[in-house]
Amino acid sequence: MTTRIFCRVCDGDVEEFVDFGRQPVSNAFVVPGEEDSEYFFPLAVGACSSCHMVQLVEEVPRERMFHQDYPYLSSGSVLMRNHWERTAKSFLSTELTGDDPFVVELGCNDGVLLETIAHSGVRHLGVEPSGGVADIAAGKGIRVRKDFFEESVAARIREQEGPADVVFAANTLCHIPYIGSVLRGVRDLLSENGVFVFEDPYLGDIVDRTSFDQIYDEHFYFFSAHSVRETARLHSLELVDVERLPVHGGEVRYTLAPAGSRTPSEAVAGLLAEEAASGLTLPATLTAFGERVERIRADLRALLTRLRDEGSRVMAYGATAKSATVLNHCGIGPDLVECVVDTTPAKQGRLTPGSHIPVVPADRFGAPYPDHVLLLAWNHAEEIMAKEEGFRAAGGQWITYVPEVRVTGS
Ligand code: SAM
Ligand code: TMP
Ligand code: ZN
């Protein structure tokens, strides 16, 4: 007998479509010698047959992922820094032009977006549970509250600061299994004409590109216009705009407003129609995705094994959270990849979770270059390949695996 899995949004039935087995916490980089104390959980994904929300079937306790030493820094990419500055300026010239406007950002991390808002003098508050990154934001003069945003925290903010014109969350809402509590809180915190804007990896892009490494502990939900519209409706909010974004391998920026307060844009109907036409809400589409994942897994393992047997030197680039799924699911360890280069200080000197490949600073990447580099941070390909042009010039070849396994120049 199979156990029924309840949808975290609507209590409907969740049908599992891909299972990655036991996986570690994706950002829990391991101190050498402490490999035996790692935490593992069953990583599998399913879709709700009622509201269509795609979701993990099991959550990792939030304090295991987001804590004082959470290593991810949002400012790590130049292209993303520009993206955040543009986003902040766009709010400043649209939603934040009234009398004493107020913006709240959930998951502000190191403050990369709010610093532009703070410089403009607009009233703001970041809500960020991970203490270390919150301290970096506070050091930039940003007002930060160290908390997990949820209904009770929203009520306290409203009491202390008044209603918000904008609540913003990037790559954060999809991280929160208790989304009902968050949306009730947002609904309560927003002013009558306020908006909740959030951007997260888009299910349509994940399925199109077979970017299965977007599936890991922190990414609990995989949003589509269909599932977001229904989730919003359940909380007296309405999906009033959508915008596709090229960042992080393909995202959508969704805008929700109190139900009836704004007219939905044509883009909403457009994306809903696109999803219906491509069959994004059909179980068969997701099952086919699961089958393609297994093909990539076999191809990547076969390639890396052949390169090792031929005596090729292989390194990896970008110790991303995403890479936990690809490395562990494909069984890629230090026998196949000698190290992973990464600019994040808190990851260096440690081992990748579960797969135990040493993480080394970016300045270790130089002549003599390895023969091949597995690009784990494929979402930053343009920036990284431009920066590391010397590797290509020296005859090195990049290996990518989204949407399929490829070796550049071959
Ligand atoms: N917004 C940044 C960006 O897009 O680069 C940071 C994204 S990071 C992947 C996710 C952030 O969400 C982490 O800094 C984490 O601490 C924070 N977070 C997790 N749960 C949260 C919650 N309930 N409320 C607010 N922030 C949360
Ligand atoms: P992300 O895909 O979650 O943004 O993570 C990107 C990771 O790649 C992060 O650990 C920082 C690292 N990185 C580099 O090492 N060099 C770079 O040039 C860029 C853009 C990222
Ligand atoms: Zn549901």
Automatic annotation (TrEMBL):
Residue intervals of the C-methyltransferase domain: 246-403
Pfam families: Methyltransf_13, Methyltransf_14, Methyltransf_23
Gene3D superfamilies membership: 6.10.250.3100, Methyltransferase, zinc-binding domain (6.20.50.110), NAD(P)-binding Rossmann-like Domain (3.40.50.720), Vaccinia Virus protein VP39 (3.40.50.150)
Domain Methyltransferase putative zinc binding: 7-66
Top-level taxon in the UniProt lineage: Bacteria
Name the UniProt record assigns to this protein: Methylation protein EvaC
